[in-house]
From TrEMBL:
Pfam families per record: COesterase
EC numbers on record: 3.1.1.-
Family listed: Belongs to the type-B carboxylesterase/lipase family.
Name of this chain's protein: Carboxylic ester hydrolase
Alphabetized GO MF terms: hydrolase activity
Superkingdom assignment: Bacteria
Length: 518
């Protein structure tokens, strides 16, 4: 009898131990500097931790202040769902958030990490979302870090303040700041997240000395800002910039001009003091702020000079850089004007309207003799005017002033045509590359992806993974990609179903664009 009881007890103990082990593996816990977080184990074995606070909620008196260190907590914080998105208006239909609602209390990050093994020191990716500094969220499926984690990378997405909450400057804010600066709170949120990574990522298996920052559009502009900021020293070793930089035509606003925008906004909402502004409910402030355009500022602290001046002097972070843009960031129709057919006459007339006596010079660099050439050159010019030129400027200046490797791409793969579209896409539109680069085509159910799309995604994802791991995108079975500084290299990597390096003939075109902007 005693023996039976013993065997039964042993069996029960084994079952309970097994259940406890399963519970442990399904609900992994990590101790951070602020307290213990409990995530979940995905079906793939990847561990995810969502909604980890990296700073105090920027509410009340902390509205329009630099992010403050997060408070410690007792017990275990459940990190099993995305935290609220930053305050924003719904502007873009392709932004599909998995977070519930929006709030000023938005400074949270998400971590995906491979199944835990002993003494891991894995490379780390920190991704900043796009959205014009007005919208975006780290919960979007196209940024999801599981695909990166499956390749041995600890991946993070970071929320940061947007619009009037993240970028308004004002003389009173400048006066109260210990740094005599205002604006750029969203950029400082990103910086605070990088400080959190430096302090905590080893507990998730990551190596704080192997951090790559990346982003698309406003996220890419953020990458250039973090590279330019003197506060970034030692926080990352490599950067990926997808379509955008705070150089050239997208340079930040000087502080005095940004403060004037803040003063005008305060008058519009009938606030006579900073205290009044801070008393306005977040929803009301968002409604009023939607009509304004608040962007990055040369604040004298986070950005002590124009980024272009910082890069020209070689004072930016000396990190490896992989950067590029898409073939149809802009649309040729925006060049021709509403209702104008793509004829040579209309195209030349449009260039004269846009550039006056420089119109013929522009035509020589963006030539067209057929409808197809008008579409191609019009897309290229619209793309440059929008965001491609600033990205080229980032690449060119970094390659000229640093010895670290620089890799440039042009993404040309159009998305599949939708049934609702009258015409097939004429190129790769703004943001089209994100799902491919991050390995997340499966999150976008809008398109019927083809084998060529998956082929493109496999190669682009592999190039990005290699770069994140080593600072070099090259690897077995991939097209050879030389750095911009390689002797005799005048090629750019075209990323499409047939990814390959081709001769680059755009130097004169960008020299012209540079002169037009100056």
């Amino acid at each position: 009898m005693n023996k039976k009881i013993f065997l039964l007890t042993a069996a029960l103990t084994a079952v309970l131990a097994g259940n406890a082990q399963n519970m442990s593996s399904n609900n992994p816990q990590v101790k951070t500097a602020n307290g213990t977080v409990q995530g979940v184990t995905e079906a793939s074995g990847v561990r995810s931790f969502k909604g980890i606070p990296f700073a105090k909620p920027p509410v009340g008196d902390l509205r329009w202040k630099a992010p403050q260190p997060a408070d410690n907590w007792q017990g275990v914080l459940k990190a099993d769902h995305f935290a609220a998105q930053a305050m924003q208006q719904p502007l873009y239909s392709d932004m599909i958030f998995r977070s519930a609602g929006k709030s000023e209390d938005c400074l949270y990050l998400n971590v995906w990490t491979p199944a835990k093994t002993a003494n891991e020191k894995l490379p780390v990716l920190v991704y900043f979302y796009g959205g014009g500094f007005r919208t975006g969220d780290g919960s979007e499926g196209r940024y999801d870090g599981e695909s990166m984690a499956k390749k041995g990378i600890v991946a993070l997405t970071v929320n940061y303040r947007l619009g009037v909450f993240g970028f308004m400057a004002h003389p009173e804010l400048t006066k109260e700041s210990p740094n005599h600066a205002s604006g750029n709170y969203g950029l400082m949120d990103q910086h605070a997240a990088l400080e959190w990574v430096k302090k905590n990522i080893a507990a998730f298996g990551g190596d704080p000395d192997k951090v790559t920052i990346a982003g698309e559009s406003a996220g890419s502009m953020s990458v250039s800002a973090q590279m330019a900021s003197p506060l970034s020293k030692g926080l990352f070793r490599a950067a990926i910039a997808e379509s955008g930089a705070l150089l050239g035509n997208l340079s930040p606003t000087p502080l005095a001009a940004a403060e004037k925008i803040g003063v005008d906004f305060a008058a519009k909402v009938k606030a006579t003091s900073l205290a009044d502004l801070r008393k306005i409910p977040a929803d009301s402030l968002l409604k009023w702020g939607a009509s304004g355009r608040f962007g990055c500022t040369v604040d004298g602290y986070f950005l002590p000079q124009q980024p272009q001046e910082i890069f020209a002097a070689g004072k930016q972070m000396p990190v490896a850089l992989l950067a590029g843009w898409n073939s149809a960031e802009g649309d040729y129709k925006s060049i021709l004007g509403r209702g104008n057919a793509p004829t040579v006459e209309n195209y030349k007339a449009a260039l004269q309207r846009l550039y006056g006596d420089k119109g013929n010079d522009v035509f020589r660099q963006y030539p067209a003799a057929t409808k197809e050439e008008i579409i191609a050159s019009g897309n290229a010019l619209a793309s440059d005017r929008f965001i491609a030129f600033s990205t080229w400027k980032l690449i060119d200046m970094h390659a000229r002033t640093q010895k670290t490797p620089v890799y440039r791409y042009l993404y040309t793969r159009p998305r599949p045509k939708l049934a609702t579209e009258a015409e097939a896409p004429t190129g790769a539109v703004h943001s089209a590359e994100i799902e491919y680069a991050m390995g997340n085509l499966h999150y976008n159910k809008t398109y019927n992806w083809t084998p060529e799309d998956y082929k493109t995604a496999d190669v682009m994802h592999a190039l990005f993974v290699n770069f994140i791991k080593t600072g070099n995108p090259n690897g077995a079975g991939l097209p050879k990609w030389d750095t911009m500084q390689s002797a005799g290299n005048n090629k750019v990597m075209i990323i499409d179903a047939e990814t390959k390096a081709v001769p680059d003939n755009t130097q004169a075109r960008y020299a012209l664009m540079d002169g037009l902007i100056k």
